[in-house]
Model the fold of this input.
Amino acid sequence: MSTPDLATTSLDLPAIRGRVDVVLSAFLEEKAREAAADSHPAVVTAFLRNFLFSGGKRLRPLLCVIGWHAAGGHGIPAPTVRVAASLEMFHAFALIHDDLMDDSATRRGRPAVHRAFADRHRTGRSGASADRLGRSAAILIGDVALVWSDELLHTAGLRPGRLARVLPLIDTMRTEVMYGQCLDLLATGRPTANTAHALAIARCKTAKYTVERPLHIGAALAGAGPAFRALLSDYALPLGDAFQLRDDLLGVYGDPAVTGKSRLDDLRDGKHTTLVALALERADRAQRRVLRTLLGNPDLDERGAGRIRRLLAETGAHATVEQLIQSRCAQAEQALDHDAFPAAARTVLRGLAREAAVRTA
Amino acid sequence: MSTPDLATTSLDLPAIRGRVDVVLSAFLEEKAREAAADSHPAVVTAFLRNFLFSGGKRLRPLLCVIGWHAAGGHGIPAPTVRVAASLEMFHAFALIHDDLMDDSATRRGRPAVHRAFADRHRTGRSGASADRLGRSAAILIGDVALVWSDELLHTAGLRPGRLARVLPLIDTMRTEVMYGQCLDLLATGRPTANTAHALAIARCKTAKYTVERPLHIGAALAGAGPAFRALLSDYALPLGDAFQLRDDLLGVYGDPAVTGKSRLDDLRDGKHTTLVALALERADRAQRRVLRTLLGNPDLDERGAGRIRRLLAETGAHATVEQLIQSRCAQAEQALDHDAFPAAARTVLRGLAREAAVRTA
Done:
């Protein structure tokens, strides 16, 4: 075995994850101290800490650091780590509001923020009033995470000119994910056979937000321009599509003990996923009638979900989504065969593509 | 009449309001064009436009521009106007989420965003499902307004070093208002006789957010440091307190046709305002029992509200709040007697203090 060179060791993913977590933890500790000094409620920092440290793959921060490295950045300087951490704080905002909009009961195996907050404040309140308080608190705690993701970014220690170069990418990423969520929201409850629309939602809501923009932001920190960012997109967009397609499958077939999420919610909500669109497209009249009755039914139980899963198999929708994931991941891997990418970046990006193809959580 | 000098004409408040609105309108038009080009839903920009242009005093943008001028800024350059506009976009976010948390039916005389969105999407949905969609959309549209307030700021055309100097003030303002909202939320439904706590909520949620920080941000754009900002605070904080105290009165006594808001909501929600805290503090046992029964009752009608208003008068709470407003406004005016302030700034700030004392909307 050869001696590891600097480029390889600098992409030690668990070590990067560790450094991101140190930044997040120290930031929240400082915020908790300030809150105590100003007589502000401690509950905001406490809930954000619980949320951030109950799990999460830290995928966006990792991709940000990999993007930095891919574009020729040396080592992993503190400002890059802090920008990466700001993406995780933004993601906490997105998940807290998403869980509220979907009324998800759990996240990362624990009660979602709106549920946990309501449960902690039931004493002396009616059930409805505690639930309403929980929903309001989740709106606010999500808002705080968004505002603090900005603060992490602003205090990253970037030179002003460097910060000014990254801000447009941050703004674009945020607008894209909001529109993706909006498309998702408008389509939920009334899924159709329109596969192209389901793929467009996934592109906007996940592929760009989760993979492409974090890589772009990291690359921009290292000075990369539009041409290099386009090379990263050739990898990021098919991989991001695959990531969402896998998420769609896990939302129906995943093991809640592993994913930390219900496997009934997407079906109960009537999410317009590629999986469901394909099934509706290929179903015969009788199958379509059954799907239409069951999808979006808030009282759907495991038995009904079992019927949907059989139809997803019978129509070939499940198998097709698996094939789409494999081909998208292969496409992402191919995009890495380019001299512009340093070997270490290529290695970890290839690993992420393979992991995305088969992940179970 | 003397010839108006430049300093006076540059603080023509209606003209500043007009320029802020032109920026907001052009920004949303550009966003609508981009959305159309990217097949994103048009509903987001449409709702934000409706919200922003259905009213609003533009108080925060005005104070930002006045702060710029007070600190010696010349004219009203485009970047200053755009930063001012970003404060109004942030305020749209705050109000949209606030209305959702309070479940307010109307804002600026029109249905609140969550209600309007639900009403527009009832076809083919159950009532509960349309209401849920409306709530989710209001979360998202508010989030978009927050993200776009950032984008307005980032694209204001400030030199990077100048932007870097303003960002910490923006971050502080946002954290403060979030904590203020959080304090408000936790106190709502269980008002007490704790007047100090009610005043602390008002300080955090309104005085700093609405008056102090906009002035500070404008002043920082003109290069002002902490010492000058402290002079502005001497004016801003008492005025901001008065502003919230007036809001508390309007929430109970205001004419909905003028305020655009219900005058039952605060009472039904059981808001912990200074007005209510004073009444609870001074009530005898029988009066307190009646107040405790009526405040926070979601089914409170005009008759019950009338009983509360009588008790607010009998306990002297109403009169005391009026006195507090007058003394706070006088204190704000006195703080203007300082050589550091240019005459034009002093004149408009004095006008705002007098207006705040007697406003009806």
Summary: Residues 1-9 of chain A have pLDDT under 50 and may be disordered.
